[in-house]
Design a protein that fits this description.
Elements (H helix, E strand, L loop, with lengths): L12 H15 L3 E7 L10 E4 L2 E3 L2 E3 L8 E6 L3 E2 L1 E2 L4 E15 L7 E7 L26 E7 L12 E6 L4 E6 L12 E9 L4 E8 L12 E4 L2 H4 L3 E9 L5 E16 L6 H47 L5 E2 L2 H7 L8 E5 L2 E8 L2 E8 L6 H13 L9 E7 L2 E7 L7 H4 L14 H21 L2 E4 L8 E3 L5 E3 L6 E4 L5 E3 L14 H4 L1 E3 H17 L16 H10 L17 H14 L10 H8 L47
Helix pairs in contact: 1-3, 3-5, 7-9, 7-12, 9-11
The chain binds 2-acetamido-2-deoxy-beta-D-glucopyranose (2 copies).
EC number: 2.7.11.1
Subcellular location: Cell membrane
Membrane topology: Single-pass type I membrane protein
């Protein structure tokens, strides 16, 4: 039953598993010598070696009923007590019922259970020798006996009613009077005895009781004695009984006998039992340890997640107008589990999906997991936008941080991003219409208003850091809406005027030349990017690459400036407009664009000025015919020259590591 751990309560399993394995391991041992005689009636005499013993009716009379006699009866097959070659030993249980009837008063002498390699009955082994040894074979015979002695015939005997274990001679290494156990060997009553030998622990345990008192209580032996039979007996032994009479006589009879033995592996004294115990313990420890490790990791993760969520929530709610918090379930349902069919675009550390949330069209931005700055950007974007309210900024409805998902919910922009309209020719099967001049002008004005608001219009100065056509969204009326505040950073006015990070971020083509030296985002770098955007929208050309100052020449800025030098600025205007534009306005905007892209950040107009130029309030800044060389550190313009850094006030000194996006 212990072998079926599935029936056990789980919490007990480890302890019981060990027990089960120990018990199972003892049960799977090979049974070797095994026989049972509930009685000897009809027993085959050939199954025994009988030496002066007789099978009479249903009992065996071990010794003849004459004075000074001895006799033996042994089972014919030998027991393999131990096997050096195979590294095994045998445990056994010998259970039998004896009956001793004194014929004189008192009777004599006694009976013994014996194990010996020599079945021969020693001469003159009657009287006190119990058929075990004789006066001359003491310490010579290979014999171990458990004696049931009914005579105190030797000074070594405790009394005339005791059980003892004799090794190689008649003297007991352990003996115990039976009177205290309610047994009188000479009473003529049936007596049940059990000799149990455990080869693993080298212990012999002896049980004796009156048969009529019922079942043998294995928890209550007469004694247990340490005894290694393999040290005292040869490998193969006979098992049986011997008995004797002296000047007094008694009938020493055996009424039943059950013998069972088990082979036990004990090779090279490495107790296999320990392995059986240790292996499961090690396994349990490993499993336990691993489970604990997983548990802790999971707990830490949950804790980390909770901490993150709390941190984000606190961070977001610290901002004055906290946006709504959505459930992940809701957003999954809204976007069809972020179905690719609903994908609007990607960039800015995430992918944007269209969704229907509470019957309203929304854009859901799913921040890329495991991005180095995902969380930081998330907080930046949520906190930044939620504090900003301007008609040219994309509205943030809410956010969600659950199951490690960072999500932002914006108002849906039906017309998508500006770049798709500008580069409509480069996109196959483009369904986007060409934006007319008025729309383009309006878009530039919208972006300028948004940037002016960010730089000068709100409590905290915000640097967008990633102005580009793909971040300009168009609403249903083609009004520009500045979006993607993933890189935006808030700056306290009058505190500092730039935001410094370890690596600069932005999009190649829109990055001001000094940013490669300073690694800083400033209002001037935003203005530079705005200048590039103007040139892009008016010309319909991509900004080109300018990762380093060396290749900077191939940029849109370089190209437009060259046309300006050649006084052919009109040639850069997008041919798709079919010459349908306000030439003066176009000239003015292009000059503004170039001015914003001035290599010297101090020479760039502020957004406020730019806006005034766009609305026609002031004339465009003068742009030198030759594009000035980029000089670093930049020269602060001399007093008297037109300058406008009262608001921008850039401090462009420190150089940090550089990394594009
Ligand atoms: C003891 O028994 C052995 C073997 O049977 C025998 O040779 C020897 O003579 C006996 N000794 C005595 C004193 O009877
Ligand atoms: C044991 O039984 C015998 C026979 O009945 C009797 O003579 C003897 O006194 C008993 N011994 C004890 C200790 O009771």
């Amino acid at each position: 039953m212990f072998c079926h751990p599935k029936f056990m309560p789980f919490f007990q399993a480890p302890k019981l598993l060990v027990q089960a394995i120990v018990i199972c391991s003892s049960l799977i041992q090979v049974q070797c010598l095994n026989f049972s005689y509930p009685s000897f009636s009809g027993a085959d005499a050939n199954e025994f070696v009988s030496l002066s013993s007789l099978i009479i009716n249903d009992v065996i009379e071990v010794s003849p009923l004459i004075t000074d006699a001895s006799g033996r009866v042994l089972y014919k097959e030998q027991l393999k007590l131990w096997d050096k070659l195979r590294g095994t030993k045998s445990s056994f249980i010998s259970t039998f019922v004896i009956n001793i009837r004194p014929q004189t008063s008192p009777g004599g002498e006694g009976l013994a259970f014996i194990l010996t390699d020599n079945p021969a009955l020693p001469n003159d082994s009657g009287r006190q020798w119990l058929g075990i040894v004789n006066a001359s074979t003491i310490n010579v015979n290979n014999i171990v006996a458990v004696e049931f002695d009914t005579r105190k015939s030797d000074s070594e005997d405790v009394d005339d009613n005791h059980v003892g274990v004799d090794v190689k001679n008649i003297y007991s290494i352990k003996q115990e009077p039976l009177a205290g156990h309610g047994v009188n060997l000479s009473s003529g009553e049936d007596i049940t005895a059990r000799i149990q030998y455990d080869a693993k622990s080298d212990k012999m345990t002896v049980f004796v009781m009156l048969t009529r008192t019922g079942q043998l209580n294995i928890g209550n032996p007469i004694f247990t004695v340490e005894l290694d039979l393999s040290e005292n007996l040869p490998e193969d032994v006979f098992v049986g009984f011997s008995g004797s009479t002296g000047e007094h006589t008694q009938v020493n009879s055996l009424k039943s006998w059950n013998f069972t033995s088990f082979e036990v592996r004990v090779k090279s004294r490495v107790n296999l039992l320990w392995l059986w115990i240790l292996i499961p313990i090690i396994v349990i420890i490993l499993i336990g340890g691993f489970s604990y490790f997983l548990f802790r990791r999971r707990k830490n993760r949950i804790k980390q997640k909770d901490d993150d969520e709390l941190e984000i929530q606190q961070e977001i709610q610290r901002s004055s107008s906290a946006p709504q918090k959505f459930r992940l379930k809701e957003l999954i349902a809204a976007t069809g589990n972020f179905n690719v069919k609903n994908k609007l675009g990607s960039g800015g550390f995430g992918t944007v999906y269209k969704g229907i949330l509470r019957k309203e069209e929304v854009a859901v931005k799913r921040i890329q997991k495991n991005t180095r700055r995902g969380k930081q950007d998330f907080i930046a974007e949520v906190t930044t936008i939620s504090n900003l309210h301007h008609k040219n900024l994309v509205k943030l409805f809410g956010w969600c941080y659950e199951s490690n998902e960072l999500l932002l919910v914006y108002e849906f922009m039906p017309n998508g991003s500006l770049d798709r309209f500008i580069y409509r020719n480069t996109i196959p099967n483009n369904l986007y219409k060409t934006l007319n001049w008025v729309t383009r002008h309006n878009i530039i004005c919208g972006v300028a208003k948004a940037l002016d608001y960010l730089h000068n219009g709100c409590d905290k100065r915000v640097i967008h850091r990633d102005i580009k056509s793909s971040n300009i969204m168009l609403d249903s009326d083609f009004n520009a809406r500045l979006g993607d505040f993933g890189l935006a950073r808030t700056i306290q006015l009058n505190e500092k005027t730039h935001y410094s990070t370890k690596g600069i971020a932005g999009t190649p083509g829109y990055m001001a030349p000094e940013s490669f030296h300073t690694g800083k985002a400033t209002v001037e770098t935003d203005i530079y990017a705005f200048g590039v955007l103007i040139l892009e929208v008016v010309s319909g050309r991509k900004p080109g690459h300018q990762n380093e100052q060396n290749s900077y020449n191939s940029s849109i800025v370089e190209w437009v400036w060259e046309q300006h030098r050649l006084e052919k600025l009109g040639d850069v205007i997008d041919l798709q407009l079919n010459k349908d534009f306000d030439a003066d306005q176009a000239q003015c905007i292009l000059l503004l664009g170039l001015a914003c892209c001035h290599p010297n950040p101090y020479e760039r107009p502020s957004m406020r000025t730019a806006l005034q130029v766009l609305t026609g309030e002031v004339a465009p800044p003068s742009v030198p015919a030759e594009k000035p060389a980029f000089i670093w550190p930049a020269m602060v313009p001399t007093i008297g020259e037109e300058m406008d850094n009262s608001i921008t006030g850039g401090q462009l000194t420190t150089t940090t590591e550089l990394s594009g996006r």
